[in-house]
Amino acid sequence: MEAEERRICRKCLIQDMPSEYFETMREYIRHLDPEIKTEQREYERRLALCRECESLMEGMCRICGCYVEMRAAIRARRCPGTENRW
Ligand code: SF4
Questions:
Q1: Is residue 59 situated within a structural domain?
Q2: Domain range enclosing 51
Q3: Which of 1, 6, 10, 59 could bridge to 14 as Cys pair (CB 3.0-4.6 Å)?
Q4: How far is residue 8's CA from residue 24's CA, in Å, rounded to a whole number?
Q5: How many domains does the chain have?
Q6: Atom of ligand 1 nearest to the CA of 71
């Protein structure tokens, strides 16, 4: 019997992963207080930059250990990379 191959998607965000795994996190982001939440267009801009970044691994930033969608959803948070992409 062949061993099941584990697929790793370096450029995936949790929004691309099976919904049951991360639904709680997505729910949390959806219900963030608008006072602290990143505006939608800026949120999407941040995530597009993460998708292009070598530090993204399965939805997580390898520099800070955060899920990037969680980090990007808070307006005051910044990219922790040396290039400060957002
Ligand atoms: S270093 Fe910045 S751009 Fe790269 S994955 Fe982390 S948060 Fe995203």
A1: yes
A2: 14-72
A3: 59
A4: 22
A5: 1
A6: 7
